[in-house]
Amino acid sequence: MENSFKAIVINKSDNTPYCAKLDTVSLNSLPDNDVKIKVLYSTLNYKDGLAITGKGPVVRSFPMVPGIDLVGEVTSSANAEFKAGDTVVLNGFGVGEKHWGGLAEQASLSADWLIPMPNELTAKQTMQIGTAGYTAMLSVIALEKQGITPESGDILVTGANGGVGSFAIYLLNKLGFNVVAVTGRPEQSDYLTKLGAKQILHRDEFSNPGKPLAKERFAAAIDSVGSHTLANICASLKYGGVVTACGLAQGMDLPASVAPFILRGVSLIGIDSVMRPKADRIEAWDRLSKLVSVDYLDTISNEINLTEVLSSADELMAGNIRGRVVVNCQS
């Protein structure tokens, strides 16, 4: 093995402004964790874009290698759970924020953060799904565990053009649910219809202050927006309805009333994908490996290499990229 590797490295100090660049890093600089990995693929998520461009307070320490998820081959392991040659998946656990992440040729990670890559998926397909698909699957599973079925009624999905929203529509449709998509980009309606949305609503219907209780319209919802949108969803759910909250695109606030919860028995379930227990991760990835088709993944993703990450991060933050950006870390 060579003594150095390529990585996107973010630096900042009292004397140096915030800067991200593709750099050559010594293997000896890797964090001292129990599993060493040759990174095959990572992705470029919105959080990675914030970290690389410095437009959000994502990075907690410097230097930092961004990349909140990855799939790779174990090169050495001090933990009996994994051995050299195993292919593993990582999502979350502060990787790319507090711990060196996946936008590199090599990584050093804790075995507690890793799960085996599903046999039904290739390394590239796993990252075509990535954190977005994994979070959407966690949300769908949460609805199912609350007793929501296709017979329950319409399922609302907000942030429909985003990574989580798009995957949620696709997965719900595959499972036989009737999906209503909410978007601020009605010009993308054809794309959402192809994903499986049966109805498209404009986000203005939900994004402004609303009433404590509204007309009962939806059996459940998957929300990645928060703020007034989430409050209005709660007010619009049928008796016994369920909403999963997994994002804050509109804001962290929740200007809601207790009325939907105490008068209609509505449930609000938080979806955390970062610190999820290993059993939940394995369940979600197992479901994804059986539900997601290769053809779908190829239509929603674009492959780049490490040399293209910085420019792609700028494009992502400018809103010029749709779909998944998969990073081939060995090309």
Comma- or semicolon-separated keywords:
331 residues, alpha/beta, Quinone Oxidoreductase, Chain A, domain 1, Rossmann fold, seven-stranded mixed beta sheet, six-stranded parallel beta sheet, 29% helix, 27% strand, globular
CATH class of the largest domain: Alpha Beta
Question: How many strand segments?
Answer: 15
The helicity comes to 25-40%
Mean pLDDT: 95
Could you say what the CATH topology of the largest domain is called? Quinone Oxidoreductase, Chain A, domain 1
- How much of the sequence lies in strands comes to 25-35%
Our Rg estimate from Cα atoms comes to: 20 Å
| Shape-level CATH architecture of the largest domain | Alpha-Beta Complex
Distance, first to last CA: 17 Å
What quaternary form is this? Answer: single chain
Determine the structural class based on helices, strands and strand pairing: alpha/beta
Describe the biggest sheet?
7 strands, mixed
Name of the CATH homologous superfamily of the largest domain:
Medium-chain alcohol dehydrogenases, catalytic domain
Based on Cα principal axes, name the global outline.
globular
Topology as a string of helices (H) and strands (E): EEEHEEEEHEHEHEEHEHEHHEHE
Query: What is the count of DSSP helices, taking H or I runs of 4+ residues?
Result: 9
Number of domains: 2
Question: What's the helix and strand layout?
Answer:
Elements: E1 4-11, E2 19-26, E3 35-43, H1 46-53, E4 69-77, E5 87-91, E6 106-109, E7 114-116, H2 123-145, E8 155-157, H3 163-174, E9 179-183, H4 189-195, E10 197-202, E11 218-223, H5 227-236, E12 237-245, H6 259-263, E13 267-270, H7 278-291, H8 294-300, E14 301-305, H9 309-317, E15 324-328
Parallel strand pairs: 8-9, 8-11, 9-10, 11-12, 12-13, 14-15
Antiparallel strand pairs: 1-2, 3-4, 3-6, 3-15, 4-5, 5-7
